[in-house]
Write a structure and sequence with these properties.
Elements (H helix, E strand, L loop, with lengths): L15 H12 L7 E3 L2 H7 L7 H13 L3 E5 L8 E4 L2 H8 L8 E2 L2 E2 L6 H7 L1 H8 L10 H11 L4 H16 L10 H6 L12 H18 L15
Antiparallel strand pairs: 1-3, 2-3, 4-5
Helix pairs in contact: 1-3, 6-8
Amino acid sequence: MANNIGYIVAPMGLTERQILIYQKLYEKCNFADMTVKYTIEQLSCDIKITDIPIKTIYKNIQIMIEKGYLKVIQKASKGNAPIYRIIPLNELLEKMGEPKVSQERTKGEPKVSPIKEKEKEKDNNIYSHWNSKKIIVHKSLTKDMEKVIEKALKKYSDNEIVQAIDTYSEILESDFYFNYKWSLVDFLNRKNGISTFMEEGSNKANYDEYLNKKSKEKNNGIEKPKEIHLRGWD
């Protein structure tokens, strides 16, 4: 059995007496499977802070079992101590519908679990900005998207990509001939993607020319029917 005394992660709702018992179980626990082999008599001897009767220790252990904090893996038998399993905090939180935390140890300290997916998506400015434009809304930020975004950021700044997305979205919402809806990965990967919608890009320049022409026609009172362009795009 490993002697794990670096820290303790205890559930809420334990009495002071139960915390003492839980602590001793935790110290002797094998973190590989969270099991501990410990007799009531051993517990009674090891709890030196206060004199707790064996019957009281047994009663409190039963209470913790009923609450789901402990589970009996093997009952005590003649010559053999009972084996308990300390229910990891992750499992307790999952039952209560709370976020999980990791009980892995790093240099004697508990390791916090990875950021929840939704928080990670919120922190990714490009992904969240893309979805806000509702061009093609992605349900989750995949590993492939993360790689493509990381690659794009090595060539363009965050602001440049956001500006290109804004221009692309604006063009799609207009009656300009360009109406190709790409996914975020396509937009970032294509040769005629990001750069062509930036300030000096070809699609941005063509769109600006279209807007200028439309503005002049409106100012001159000329009403022209919409032109339909049939044009392929690589």
